[in-house]
Amino acid sequence: MTDPIDSWPTGRLLSTAARLVEHEWAEALDARGLTHAGLVVLHFLDAGALNQSELARSAKVEAQTMSRTIERLERRGLVRREADPLDRRRLVVTRTAEGDGAWASTRLLESDVFPAVSNPAQLRARLLEIIHASSKGRW
What is the pLDDT of residue 115? Predict the structure, then answer.
């Protein structure tokens, strides 16, 4: 007997899979006191200090959205904003030691949360292909 979802259109399958993984991901992050947006910031700061505009551009969100995320992370003590040594009018964002710890606590999160698939590299390549093709002109 086949499962009714076997006949669903690909878009619905992708949307359903994304929602299921997103729920698990959000719960795992919440258990660590993080949000998806906060995790994105901690990830980008792995390369070093960045200003708010650079973070927003990298995350493909509006500067105002990034500002709220940074404020939440700053209140939790995970990041700090300091004057840019090259341009004192700008602020750069850096991870604190607590932020480094929070980031480190998520290093294995993907393998813990994401269900095992037969060919993860191929799935990742196809997802990137879909995202790139769908986002032309959007970002």
Answer: 86
The alpha-carbon radius of gyration of the chain (Å, integer) is 18
**Which helix (H) or strand (E) element contains residue 107?**
none
Bridge partners for 87 per DSSP: 84
- 88: exposed, middle or buried (C-beta count within 10 Å: 0-12, 13-18, 19+)? exposed
**pLDDT score at 139:** 66
Token code pair at residue 68: 């709220």
Q: Which residues pair with residue 84 across a beta bridge?
A: 87
Secondary structure (DSSP) of 54-79:
HHHHHHTS-HHHHHHHHHHHHHTTSE
Report pTM: 0.80
In whole numbers, what is the pLDDT of the chain averaged over residues?
92
CB 17 within 8 A of CB 127: no
CATH topology of domain 18-135: Arc Repressor Mutant, subunit A (1.10.10)
**pLDDT attached to residue 93:** 97
Is residue 1 predicted with pLDDT exceeding 90? no
